User: Which sequence fits this backbone?
């Protein structure tokens, strides 16, 4: 019998999860979709699925074996806690919560649950951990085939910042991916961070300083950097290069047709993250469903990972308010 | 309810299909596996599946909604005809049959079936039609964004020829992919072909002349070429470039880590076709299963496509025996 | 004392040679420029140089130590013979002559001169032999680091055919570069050739079939191919890949800024051959001048090389008039 | 008449200049070579040149029209001042001097000379300004075809640090190239800098922290970064990417044969800077000689440029001794 999944939130990301679960994942079906906008829920849901505007109804439904939380960030923590009460496995889109307080509350609740019942219900949607390029880069790094890693250079660019974006939300919503992936790549926690920025693009509005440049020091001494540019205009770009003692390894350039026309050799750069990470989203969902089928622990990022990324984000925000000074991360 | 698939043949390709159907395809489960070697069947099958050494038992089982034929080429036609009798949808790995006679027999049987029952049961496993690179190349070609196509250049290299490979089997087993894909890309049938070869590699044995070089003329006048090199040693390579009136477009170079070490920038080239076409196999199976779920015609290559590729292969073999002379393709 | 060079022909190529000799070559100065159009000669010549409309005056001048012939193809043979009479070293732009008869006459005259005086005066301007990419490709091929070469694939595209271009002139003027470079790369003479074409571009006029596709068989059995596309519109492209027994080597993609803008990663492709072969022209001229300074034989292509390329071109033209049949090259 | 050049210092760099001036530069000849080691001078000098162990003899010789200083860094300032006294044009390899005091003394002496005689005698060997990639990058940046530049990311890696290298000498000898090129690219002076490092390579010895990571803020607000890694082992690498408001542009990857062998696609990375910057050195020398021939000001970096780079280096060293704090550059 397929795992019956309820999806909360039918926006861009939720709709993508629904489509994946319904059409490209082995062993799953979407039986219930919740969205504050019932029309949006209906548009995204497969024909056979139930629809609601009340996520609690979905979480507690006997038609649902597992839940995906893809609703607004501010609702994540509460919905995850409801899933705990219902003893339902949940895959929560990043971030775990917009505040550290809530993130910690969730992680503590999960620890209590684990102690009381032995169940681990929460998985975090840090899908880059399933991107084949990142996986290969991590394997190469861990195998030390080029000696010890010394520096890591990341680039993260999107076409344009969302409405109301600020330098802080750029950290908690976008840089959060690198805040998760860098210690995962290095297998070493980040101890201190520094946030910097120079001239901002004409497309930056409000208090968003864009692009930013961040530095992270790992416990093993590795220095990592991140250029984060939300309003890069030209296309979506994710890069990561690990510089080790006798060699370097970098994520592959995404494959695209090699076109020669009008005096140029060119290849298309996608406008958003979905083509770039389509495999990662699919493989993450499949790993989650397959683990549920087998009753095994899901090999996804955990609540603790989500909390750690939020703690790193908090450190980065403190640096941003301290004129870029290196700031210890408080775990 | 998932589509219950029986897989005939549990060799490299069959095992790959079983793994895909069991772990990465939405809406399918493998319920039955047949192989002359019962141990091989058992090793490849999921725990819940039945096992047999008799493919007819599988085809006629009430546990099977659809069949994948991945057994020895010489068995394809007979098994497909059995599926027709059982009115069971079947995905047949290429080639449809090693002989034109058998291929034609199957296609005629399917036409009779279609006339009698309205059913189209046969899909062919020309998976490159689902490779995202080829799909993009075909779209660009059909959109005529660079004017009319004029020449197409293909390269197909494998690490080593299988045991007993001959210049003929190199055409019917390997070049067959390009014989299918070139007219599909151009949307124009191939009218004549020429087979050529120069010096052969020291790794060629028997009557295999390797590498070969083939030319194909399409009805629309486009000239296509194919370098086919089975014993290329260094790795698996598939290339295709379409040269049009004011530009060119080529398949992307497959993505791999960009490594710099010991005086070289390098990236890995896989040793066989599975990593290169993993997406294509998965997407082809998914398209087949999804069509079966919806009761729609499968968007895969058809028996007619399989026959046409075999007819092209026959023309190429006639040219090979005519000192490379251009030879009309007889459809 | 610098070598005093007289340049005959002040068109695009002649002006380029004058500029190189005057501003980037060690040990040379341009002292005399001849062109039927005196104004064009004056515009291209350095201020201190003499000007004439009579090339014989230049060849026989005591102000000239060596001559570059870059005038119309039809004048090449006659001017080279005049240089022989004047005992003046001469660098003749390709082709040696438009007809085989003239080419052979020049080569025989040079042989007589060599027998009588020991002097080798003629160098041919096949500049690709000095392109660092081709040089590296030849070294790798000759070192057999990948075993024996088996196939060679060349691509030659220009933006547009010159006025009055025909399928024949495309061979004698453009393909001539590959007709020289392929046997030079392989160190094996070409024995037979085949000329083919498919659909022609809408930009082809007169009897020009464009693009064409040529096949060449070397004495060592290697099969070489050439796509020649004069009206490729998009830019100038030269490619060459040598396929050997356990690996392949190809000319590098020319370096250009890596630009990302408007949804595309792109790099510029030059519109003509000069940027692509600027190094080759410079290095060829320098090698010629340095040899003259030292009184050593010039390491450039010889008259015999020029004759052989013309003989290959003749074979290709015979194939073109024989419906693409393989045609023996008559040396 | 060619410009007669005297070269002081016949080490790796001096020998390269001698070879270039003798064999690939128009209008120059090397007439005099000075080195403390007469044998080394003789080995590097062309046969017709004089040899000395006394640089003053060379500077004041009537056989010398212009001087190249490529001796030990500690001798640069004194030799340049001697050239001023002799009123001889001089091309001084970087750095102008190891200390700011000396650099300033030279620049002041040159200003006095200019005031007194109108002569500008000093050119600095910042050859990257003549690298075609950097030139194209600067043109694109200045044309603002992608809007205002916002960040610049540089990478500079060498195979191994020289004997006795320290974190300071890594700045004054290696990073000095980027300290010159970044403000040149941006056309905006650097106002403050920060030096950082993480874990050092096992190949670092003494007080060398390697790799380092540097940040530079330009007056126009652009933030530039530099990864400097002397012991990178794998090969020589120079990268530079300019991130602007609606696009990015980066130096091209150097051209090298594209080789496929043993499961890898690879291209060679040179072991030192000479192949990477061969064109730049040649074009710089040619620009210097051509200007001398015409009596025009040389379009090379000036003494002021050399001084500014040293001032930046001093700021960077102060940051290094201030735990990485941003440090104002004192001009």
Assistant:
């Amino acid at each position: 019998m397929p795992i019956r999944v309820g999806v909360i939130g039918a926006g861009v990301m939720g709709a993508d999860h629904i489509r994946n679960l319904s059409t490209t994942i082995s062993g799953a079906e979407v039986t219930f979709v919740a969205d504050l906008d019932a029309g949006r829920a209906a548009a995204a849901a497969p024909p056979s699925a139930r629809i609601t505007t009340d996520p609690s109804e979905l979480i507690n439904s006997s038609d649902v074996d597992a839940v995906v939380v893809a609703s607004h960030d501010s609702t994540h923590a509460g919905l995850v806690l409801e899933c705990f009460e219902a003893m339902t496995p949940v895959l929560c889109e990043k971030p775990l919560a917009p505040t550290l307080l809530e993130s910690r509350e969730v992680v503590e609740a999960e620890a209590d649950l684990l102690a009381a019942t032995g169940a681990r219900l929460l998985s975090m949607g840090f899908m880059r951990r399933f991107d084949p390029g990142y996986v290969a880069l991590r394997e190469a790094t861990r195998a030390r085939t080029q000696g010890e890693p010394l520096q890591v250079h990341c680039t993260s660019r999107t076409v344009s910042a969302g409405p109301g974006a600020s330098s802080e939300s750029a950290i908690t919503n976008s840089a959060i991916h690198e805040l998760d992936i860098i210690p995962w790549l290095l297998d070493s926690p980040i101890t201190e961070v520094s946030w910097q920025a120079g001239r901002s693009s004409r497309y930056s509005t409000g208090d968003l300083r864009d692009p930013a440049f961040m530095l992270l020091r790992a416990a093993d001494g590795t220095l990592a950097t991140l250029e984060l540019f939300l309003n890069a205009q030209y296309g979506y770009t994710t890069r990561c290069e690990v510089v080790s003692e006798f060699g370097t390894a970098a994520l592959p350039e995404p494959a695209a047709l090699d076109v020669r026309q009008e005096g140029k050799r060119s290849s298309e750069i996608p406008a958003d993250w979905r083509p770039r990470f389509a495999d990662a989203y699919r493989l993450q969902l499949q790993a989650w469903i397959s683990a549920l089928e087998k009753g095994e622990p899901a090999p996804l990022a955990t609540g603790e990972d989500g909390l750690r990324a939020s703690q790193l984000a908090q450190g980065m925000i403190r640096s941003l308010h301290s004129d870029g000074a290196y700031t210890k991360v408080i775990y």
About this structure: The longest helix of chain C spans residues 273-294. Chain C has a mean pLDDT of 96.
